[in-house]
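Exercise 3.2. Students should predict the tertiary structure of the chain below and write it as structure tokens, then compare their answer with the key that follows.

Predict this chain's 3D structure.
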Amino acid sequence: MDADASVCAIWVFLLYSFAIINADVAEERGTHRPIRGIYPKADILNRVIAKLVDAILVIAVGKLLSPAGWLAGLAYVLIGDGFSGGRSIGKRVAGLHTVNVHTQDAAGFKESIIRNLPLASAYLVFAVPYIGWIVASAITAFETLLMIGNEEHLRLGDELAHTQVLQNGPFEVQE
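Answer key:
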């Protein structure tokens, strides 16, 4: 009976996700405008807080909807930044959004998948006891060190997807 409830919960999650995706796509077709202005880059602390919120959500889904929740968590890790103007749930909480650096458009699902491949690979190998934990920790530490050491606070995933995480409010430009 628990397996049936898990499968049902996964279907509800997937249908809800597709409804959100379709609403976002419809909104983008009608009113999508590039983000203009000068936006401050995101503070490292805010990015860490956003990722922790997302990680707690992924862990909760994985535990509550076991065993299929693990796949739902992986899907969220990959596409989370493509929702609603380049904002995962953690980024919404922390007041951040992800943009394409070339077009200044909000990041979509393609950019989200590309930029989160390193973290998704850490999520995948974490399932392997001991060695996987070490490798996942190394990947996460590497991404964090790149973000700290880079002037624009870019991770490897940001470099691959040509994205940057910014604060939500624009700078006030004095003339």
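Discussion points: The chain has one domain: 2-167. Helices lie at 2-31, 44-64, 69-79, 89-94, 109-115, 117-125, 131-149, 156-161.
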